[in-house]
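User: Can you predict the 3D structure of Zn(2)-C6 fungal-type domain-containing protein? Sequence below.
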Amino acid sequence: MAASAPNASPISLPSTLLPTISAETDRDQRSSRSTPTRSSPTDLTRSRSAGRGGCWVRRKKCDEERVENDSCRTCRRLGIQCLGWGPRRPDWMRDKEKVAEYKAEIKAQLTRAGLIRGQPRAIYNALANPSSTITSATTSTTSILPRRTTGLRRSRTNEYNVYPTRYASSPHFQQSTNLISGIPGLADQECIPYYFAHVRKLQFVFAGHSLTDTLYRIASTDPQGALSYALRALASLHSTTTRVAHGLEAPSSPGHTVHKHYYDRATYILSNVKTLGGHYTEFHAIAAVYLISYHILSGNGGAAWAALLEVAYDWFALTGIHEEQNPKLMLVNMNAPQKLAAKATMWIDILSGVTFLRPPRFLSVYRRLFGGGGAGYWSTSNNDQLDLRMDKLTGCPDEALLAIAETAALAHWKASESRQGSLSMRDLIRRGDQIEQALRQRPARNYAESPTSETVPVMPSGMTAAAGMFDDTTGPDETTRRTVAEIYRETAMLYLHTVLSDSHPGVPEINKSVNTLLDLIQQLGPSQFDRAVIFPLGLTGCMTADPFYRLMIKDRCNLHPLDFYCNGHIAQIQQLMEYVWTTRDSQRGSVPVDWRECLHERWSNLLMV
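Assistant: Sure. Here are the predicted structure tokens for Zn(2)-C6 fungal-type domain-containing protein:
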């Protein structure tokens, strides 16, 4: 393709993403970063009659609310010894050297505990084996910067060698208290187990237990991180949505829910990374992906999720992968969280190009990864073992994903040339033929179940309980994987024809693709895998003019009336289809109704994943 790749430079998270924090919450957050105390030369316990005042922390009173044992509420919450009560600070705090020593000691203590925002946390502390290879949140990203690939070339047998303990007994999920008192919802310590029991199986349904294992390891070792709050938000949203759908709970105001508070906390953490001079890591990128999922499923208006996508973009660019001539080599040497962050970022980047009518940000990377004979560097026989194929995460094969990315770029080029009055139809068709030929040259691929994606992770001795907590929903079999792959290939073809011939359902190529897709969707059958083909369902529905076919698509979307996705994401897809149908019928086919323009103008928050 002649179209140039867009600039891949990272963009920091906008300040508009920063949530509004209530006075009480803001006080708690400032207090949680306050310096706790140590033993001092003076008597730490003041008399209750010493006068109105508070515990002295960081040379000022942290609060004035006394609880039992002569401790203030802030110190009690932080689990530290209180400096005592009185209207004046302790005399020893007038000594600058002692104060400096005090601050350094406390900062080191809080850093080890992971309680200081912006400071590196030991994400992978040794839960099972103290001698295991440990990768911190900071060094894990640094290791994959350009010309600094030493960390990526380490032995893959030792990477990420940390295993979770049982959910219910993990202390990480029991230390926090409910964030918003008086608002119904899951208790804080219930959210993470609830996510893995009820929500995990609904997202990336082709990834299997390998993804479950990766997410749980991160959440259990960083319970106050952005990803943990993102998973809490999704769990709380699912619980609330389910209870409301069954009539067990009245709908709440969108801005006053527990799940929105978790979402705000996660985005607040991401916003603070750049504010404090840090860099996004793969853990921030994964958190951004799951916050995008929350944003879409909750039905929030606008395209605010695009700001979250910039977090993933920033990390992806920081790896230097867009500068590599052989990006596969870098992906091969990534650990499990890095591969997840990279593949999820690429997936959302490409599908966001459909929504925003623009080329994907990293199109040049995808051409090197997927291009050349249909799969490029990814077509080797070792891909199954290396876990690099995109369909193992999304169900969409590499060549179809590249075709969607190229078509988004072609649509952008066509619109630009049309505005300038210089569109060459011959050039347009030539470019389209190149995309179609690459898509048709599919590589031979094994769709049998892979041990890396479908079996419960093997745990060290004494740690098998956590695997039992993972959802045991049957993964996709070989037939399902092949069918979904064919659905995405035909969807890419249909998308291409809507760009080449405009959105006319009567065009023979468009009509043929619609009929083929309907047959494949019927062949797939209603199941949890419908959530993996939202883009094909939506595009097929938009591009059919047959009333019977429209009814088929609507019925398929409504087969799970109490489903999490049906109440959120799929409901918006239905609204898009019905708007396109109504508009097209009212105009009697006199002018094409561009489904992409409808999506961009009226459902700019709708990411069809």
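Confidence is low (pLDDT under 50) at residues 1-54, 118-182, 373-382, 450-468. DSSP finds 26 helices and four strands in the chain.
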